[in-house]
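Structure request: SRPBCC family protein, Paramicrobacterium chengjingii.
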Amino acid sequence: MNSSPTGAIERTPDGGTVRFDRLLAFPIDDVWSAITQPERIADWWPPFAADITVDLREGGRIVFDWPDSDFPTLEFTITRLIVPTLLEHSHTSPGSWMRWELDATTDGTRLRATYFIPDIDMAIERGDLVGLHYSLDRLEPALAGRPSAWDTVAFTELAARYAKPDSHSA
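Returned structure:
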């Protein structure tokens, strides 16, 4: 039940945004829990095992630590919070941010995920777009109680599709 499974890129004078719009057949409180509770985030967002902490308040932090990897710890600051409809936080690059907007619908929840980054080409090149897409693909099975493991082959195939010039709208 996806309304736009592929991210839409919009270039702006100060960078660009990537937007995903997904319709999920789950209640808004369940989706909210999946995007804000550490044990549920672990089911769909990170590519490998992570110790995740969330201090769910404006000014609080979302931290991904990777105990089995040399990957650097990711730390985001929550900048806006309206439970259960809006979560906005900083992202890895200076000036970047991520916004999660939820709306209850008659069939479940509409999730709009918007990622702003000052250097959109760098974000595409380093895999931010395909990573977000693939994580969102894993959200629905996680909501259904059947989390799917990170599939490197599927991720690589998705990355190849995004590498094609007309793979997403501009």
